[in-house]
Protein: Class I SAM-dependent methyltransferase
Amino acid sequence: MTVPGRRRPYGVITRGTTNPNRLRRVDNWIVATCGDLLRDAADPLVVDLGYGASPITAVELRSRLAAGVRPDVRLVGLEIDPERVAAAAPAADPPGLTFARGGFELAGLRPVLVRALNVLRQYDESEVPGAWRTMTAALAPGGLLVEGTCDELGRLGGWLLVDADGPRSLTLAARLSTLETPAELAERLPKALIHRNVPGERVHDLIRALDDAWRAAAGYAPYGPRQRWLHAVQSVRNGGWPLLDRPARWRLGELTVPWSAVAPA
Ligand SMILES: C[S@@+](CC[C@H](N)C(=O)[O-])C[C@H]1O[C@@H](n2cnc3c(N)ncnc32)[C@H](O)[C@@H]1O
Structure:
């Protein structure tokens, strides 16, 4: 990996897999959760880091933020692969949407928000804290990083909200109509947690608690998976898990806990 401090983008080229609407769940969460940060920003600059072989999810993030938060949002898609930067050029729509080469150092930009989805998944777990530090050091004051993983179609995902002090929260999200069991979410945990779904780790306890509650809520299945999920999450909360979100988000198949509740042992 290229080391920070040099002029070359910091990071390595990895697989460019992406898909339209793959990041819809995390984008909607960003609009709801980070909207005020963007609304209050003097310069509403957002970076989509590692947009992949096609710029489609960057295009979608820009339109969701423009429609849901503020129309003058400026989104810069950064990619470490120069061929992917060239391939994205026809999709640019300046000044609201541009593409450039860059890595974790964010190419000298000072955004208020960075989305880096399915990027760290292909790095070693030991590289995660350094990548977070590099990205958050480049943010505008008070800025936030959303870093996580999802499946190819965006049906299962997990992401962290990270600031200059480190991770704040973990959100798990599922398309409830295709969810067999919450244990499936373990495969899509952010890189910092994906190897921690083992006995003795808190994230393992959380997924097990959710899975047990989902099984216990089987009686609500005839009313639809949303009712079953709502009851399962309520029971996880009743069991003492410090959930940060409310039923309005649970209804969407989400659940958010503080990082301290799931941080690796
Ligand atoms: C799997 S794709 C993810 C695409 C899109 N974000 C998504 O979730 O569908 C990962 C992309 O991240 C890029 N990448 C990896 N490390 C990077 C870094 N340090 N800076 C910028 N891009 C990076 C890779 O070149 C690759 O195109």
User: Anything to note?
Assistant: The beta strands are 45-49, 74-79, 97-101, 113-117, 144-150, 156-163, 166-174, 254-258. The CA atoms of residues 24 and 215 lie 27 Å apart. The first helix runs from residue 24 to 40. The two ends are 27 Å apart (CA to CA).
